[in-house]
Design brief:
Layout lengths: L1 H12 L6 H10 L5 H7 L3 H11 L13 E7 L5 E9 L4 E8 L6 H16 L11 E8 L10 E4 L14 E7 L7 H8 L11 H12 L3 H67 L4 H8 L3 H8 L2
Parallel strand pairs: 3-4, 4-6
Antiparallel strand pairs: 1-2, 2-3, 5-6
């Protein structure tokens, strides 16, 4: 009987894995705007290059295929890490970071700034002159119109307020979204991001990569990626929940300590006041006047009179 219970316990503890059919259905419903598909999509240099050419409106743009990394982790000087959805370098000595974002749940503009600064620090070497710092282009693709102006694409740059002239500081921030559908080539590409399958002659490499992931030899890789993605997200959620629980516990402990300190201070003041009142009464019984008592106990005369009921 005990052995049966152990077997049942082990069976209950097994990981609940999805069947192949369930995973294939998930893959079938995935779109480029979804993290797990975009991550695998960005492992193809030609598709990545075409994506950059369209969004940056530069058909001559060329990348260094060997520098392409999907889900690249970087650390800043404070050892805080950041995970970039896609990282690749161009032949013009530029660095490109492509981010995908479905949820409107953070300060996106500051996230772009943080990514760019972390990339700059990691790409800099001791002795580099400032003019040698590489240009960084961050492309932020979202499922919502971040700035609410009804545009498919927004180019953000630093400008001199007094003159309106742009400042060439080496950072280019481009925000693209799938919410606003216009007649531009970029708008057409963004609408492809919302489709579960597509083939568009304007984007041959992007279409090819989509076909490979959905219907080609890489569908097995996609199955594994879906499982790995789900597992990674579960771990991230668990880590976030643990950090949140730790933060709340710390806040509760600090609040309890603060309250205890305030109570102790209040009690100490009340006890000190009682001692002072008894001292004042004793001195009064000894015949001292209020002026002399005030000097003796270092308490103002009005307070002493109030205590004595005068």
């Amino acid at each position: 009987m005990a052995d049966n219970k152990k077997v049942q316990s082990k069976e209950k503890s097994k990981k609940d894995r999805k069947t192949d059919d369930e995973v294939m259905q998930i893959i079938k419903n995935l779109r480029l705007i979804d993290d797990v598909l975009f991550e695998k999509f960005m492992e193809d240099p030609a598709a990545c290059e075409e994506l950059l050419q369209v969004i940056l409106e530069n058909p001559q743009l060329k990348v260094k295929p060997e520098t392409l990394v999907a889900q690249k982790s970087l650390r800043n000087l404070a050892k805080r890490s950041v995970r970039l959805d896609a990282y690749i370098e161009g032949v013009e000595d530029k660095v490109y970071n492509i981010e995908i974002q479905r949820s409107d749940n953070c300060n996106h503009v500051k996230r772009v700034r943080y990514n760019a600064s972390t990339i700059t620090v990691n790409k800099s070497e001791p002795g580099d002159e400032f003019e040698d710092v590489q240009d960084v282009i961050v492309i932020y693709i979202s499922e919502f119109d971040m700035f609410g102006a009804g545009k498919t694409i927004y180019h953000v740059e630093n400008v001199i307020r007094e003159t309106g002239e742009p400042v060439k500081d080496g950072l280019t921030s481009v925000y693209v979204n799938t919410e606003v559908a216009d007649d531009s080539l970029i708008g057409e590409l963004m609408q492809c991001f919302l489709k579960t399958d597509f083939e568009d002659n304007n984007f041959p490499n992007i279409s090819r990569r989509m076909k490979e992931l959905k219907h080609g030899e890489e569908d097995e890789i996609m199955c594994k990626s879906v499982e790995e993605y789900a597992e990674r997200k579960a771990k991230e959620a668990a880590k976030k929940a643990a950090e949140e629980a730790t933060r709340k516990a710390k806040e509760a402990a600090e609040e309890a300590a603060k309250k205890a300190a305030e109570e102790a201070t209040k009690k100490a003041k009340e006890e000190a006041e009682e001692v002072a009142k008894r001292t004042v009464k004793n001195l009064t019984d000894m015949g001292m006047d209020t002026v002399s008592i005030a000097k003796a106990v270092n308490i103002d005369e009005e307070t002493i009179k109030l205590w004595l009921g005068q």
